[in-house]
Amino acid sequence: MLDVDWDVRTVEGPPPASAAEASGRDTVSLVAAVVRNETPVPRLVRLRSTVEEPVLPPRRRGVPEAGWDEEGFAGTVPPEDRLPLGFAVAGRPAEPPVTVVDRGRADVVDADVDEGEEPTPADLLRELGSPAPPREAVPAGGDDDGGETGVTTEQSVDSGAVPAHVGAWLDAVEDRIGRGASEPADLAALRRVAERAAALAGDCPADGGAGVESSGGS
Amino acid sequence: MIVAVAGGKGGVGKSTVALNLGAAMDAVVVDGDLAMADLPGGRGPDLHDVLAGRADPLEAVRGGGPVAVLPCGRTLAGARDADVEALAGVVAAVEGACGPVVVDTPAGLAADAGLALHAADCSVLVTTAASSAIAGALRTRELARELDAGVAGVVLNRVEGRPPREAVRDALGAPVTAVPESPAVATAREEGRPVDAGREAAGRFRDLAATVRSASTGR
User: Which residues of B fall within a CB distance of 8 Å from A129?
Assistant: First the structure.
């Protein structure tokens, strides 16, 4: 009773430096689907992604739109109408990227189930917006006891200490390695940092470069 | 009973009213202002920890003082980690274990204000006589009604001289308690405690508590 047309646009990440890093984590696909209902009654639809990675659903103010979960979407297609849907997912989906299950007529269940229903906390977040400060507003490496955002870049240059946010990131990676929970992305990032650090250290004069004009680094 | 102390505009004295109403009702005051906590905290787990799943709601309640408080953390990182959707469950858990709860609701109409009102049985609107504050209270009243936290009472705060009590009651449609501008209230607030019971303002907060109780039994 329901038909679906779909389209996939995949954005490839950078090629992996080695086979061990070929996790596909940097590749992301946008899946567009249009569910068609040619019957004269509203129908319930369950659309599932065929990719194992969780669906990254459309969000409003950080909260998934109504009907979406990690597997896909559940909702109603109006009679003789189309329902356009779209989501993102890590990796490249096989074909077809979605399956559609017709869950039967939507008009035999209580049609005005939404009316007067208590809003859920998620509804409120969608409508009013989350009060959480944006990620960019939270200092990297800031701890829970307030204020301490670590040494500034100037101080770290003076003391030779590793900047707090760099140290915090390294500590987090060390923790993941220690728990056996490191990810391929950790290795890739560590290698990139090691290469960049080695290159910069090579360019950096031992006397601090007083009076030497920077050549712009590597 | 869960009472949300709300009022769209900042700086009208919501936290002061919440603290004093909490004392008059023998309630736990929950600092629901996740981004800009205002009630005294001290050491130990706070609402950010509870909403991030790091602490039990009852662990974070500070008893022992003149009024029990569940304070909120003051860091941006804590505000970001907090799952505000859990607020109603946390407030209900405190009510179940400790009795009445007064939630100090943040200014504005963002989801933390909405979720506090959603968690509440009724609300108390706080405003000053300034028209901007009354306009904020009107907007908050609409949200409170939508979320089934009907307005049990209005505090006309920091009044000097003859308060426009009737005008405010007509505008907001609920009984008005006028609380005079008072150095005793301000000093107590700075020290993080309710005003001394013998003061005139303390009597007004007891009136407010009675109004809230009768509104909730009347519904």
Answer: 110-111
Closest CA of chain A from B146, distance in Å: 9
Q: Who has greater pLDDT, A132 or B31?
A: B31
Confidence of residue A204 (pLDDT cuts 50, 70, 90): confident
CA distance B149 to A118: 12
Express each pLDDT in A79-125 by its tens digit.
999 999 999 998 888 889 999 988 888 776 544 444 456 778 888 88
Output the pLDDT for position A208. 59
Cα–Cα–Cα angle for A119, B149, B36, rounded to 5 degrees = 85
* Nearest-Cα residue of chain B relative to residue A124: B111
pLDDT score at A200: 86
Question: What number of C-beta contacts closer than 8 Å exist between A and B?
Answer: 74
Find out whether B18 and B93 touch, Cβ atoms under 8 Å: no
d(CA A67, CA A55): 12
Asked whether A11 and A27 are in contact (CB, 8 A), the reply is yes
Q: Which amino acid is at A177?
A: I
Strand partners of residue A217: none
pTM: 0.63
